[in-house]
Amino acid sequence: MVIAQVISGALAMAFTITLLFGVGDVTLALESPTKFPIMQVFLTATGSKGATTAMVSKRYMTPVRAIILVYLVASLLGLVHIGSDAAFNALTSLSLVGHYASYLLPITLVALRRFGKREIPWGPWTLGSWGLPINLFAMLYSLILIIFMVFPPFQPVTVENMNYASLMFGSVMLLSIALWFVYGSKAYNGPVREVIEELHIK
Questions:
Q1: How far apart are CA 24 and CA 44, in angstroms?
Q2: How far is CA 100 from each of CA 22, 26, 44, 61, 125, rounded to the nearest angstrom?
Q3: Cα gap 162→86, rounded to integer Å
């Protein structure tokens, strides 16, 4: 619960800062004919009435479809817990495992290239000599979290309380690897290869 509050607070702070940077004329926002200052802020930022009101109901002056979609998705995810604790635990664990794995893979590849002392096409900003230690720490941190996220939540482990996130994640990874060798390696070039070829990097 504490972690959820910290994350929510950080996201709210980020949204508030973004909103303050894009608010423009405060008086115009407060005296907006739409009666909704936030809509005036979006209109000022985008300069497009279509982009601002595309999903807003003209009858209720609220994004009805977006609200209904969020409600349905949240309700369906909540129903998973009612039907099966194991499925709910697997769903939440899998989301975190996938999240950290998506970071772990590119960080590992960059670290391997650093160890090989091969040329890396850096962007406009780099960590310099701190890059490799931070990469290694991030790899270790992600691995520890991934390992603990697939642990069963209860002891002794049974079919009912098993954490199936490892099975689901492993199945997807095996399928992805198989698809890469069958199709992806032949059809996908990717931005990295394009950059390497353009800059003649070895």
A1: 7
A2: 31, 40, 37, 39, 23
A3: 6
Per residue in 172-195, pLDDT (tens digit) is 889 988 988 888 777 776 555 555
CB 150 within 8 A of CB 163: yes
Six-digit token string for 122? 């850096």
Which pTM was predicted? Answer: 0.51
The first and second tokens of residue 134, run together, are: 């931070």
Q: What are 68-94's pLDDT values in tens digits?
A: 887 887 777 666 666 666 677 777 778
Q: Hey, what are 162's tokens?
A: 């098993």
Token digits for 145?
Answer: 């979290």
- C-alpha closest to that of 136 among 103, 107, 98, 116: 107
